[in-house]
Amino acid sequence: MKNIFDRKHTNEILARINKLDAHSEPHWGKMNVAQMLAHCSAFQDIASGVTFPKRSWLGVVVGGFAKSIVYNDKPLPRNMSTIPTILIADKRDFEKEKELLKQKTDVFQRNGPERCTTYPHPFFGKLTSEQWGICIYKHLDHHLKQFGV
């Protein structure tokens, strides 16, 4: 499984982010490209232990069983629901969001598994550092595919 803690996978993601431009259009979903970049940055804030969204009641009930969505080699399905606190609907600056996501991705990778949050994922619950690394990669891969890169 690809993991953001592996430098070659991080480099692949960064190269794909660099292929985006302010006019990139989504193949599905409601976010524009700048909003998607901000959304991905906000998700990394959760994995880094910067933000701590509460667990949803549905996540408490079924989140542990649903971890298999993340912990496998299959891509994430289109139009999955998202964590409400990181749903971006306001206008964002593309260049600013692109650079911020690249910086956060690089820092997350360099910090390594030791600096990953121990706070539970808002839906899936407790994740190991390895699972967070896979989750970050898959989340970025999902949204980059959404925009054709």
Element layout with pairings:
Blueprint: H1 7-18, H2 33-48, H3 57-63, H4 94-111, H5 129-146
Helix pairs in contact: 1-4, 1-5, 2-4, 2-5
Structural write-up:
- The chain has 149 residues and is mainly alpha-helical.
- The chain has one domain.
- It is 48% helix and 0% strand.
- α1 packs antiparallel against α4 and α1 (7-18) packs parallel to α5.
- The protein is globular, with a radius of gyration of 14 Å.
- The two termini are 19 Å apart.
- The model has no long low-confidence stretch (mean pLDDT 95).
Report the major sheet: none
Structure annotation, total helices:
5
Order of helices and strands: HHHHH
Average pLDDT over all residues: 95
**Total domain count:** 1
Q: What are the low-pLDDT stretches, counting only 5+ consecutive residues below 50?
A: none
The portion of residues forming beta strands comes to under 5%
Shape: globular
- According to DSSP, the number of beta strands is 0
What structural category arises from helix and sheet content?
mainly alpha
Termini gap: 19 Å
Spatial extent as radius of gyration: 14 Å
Helix percentage range? 40-55%
Question: Short summary of the structure?
Answer:
This is DUF1569 domain-containing protein. By secondary structure, the chain is mainly α.
Keywords:
DUF1569; DinB/YfiT-like; about 150 residues; mainly alpha; globular; DUF1569 domain-containing protein
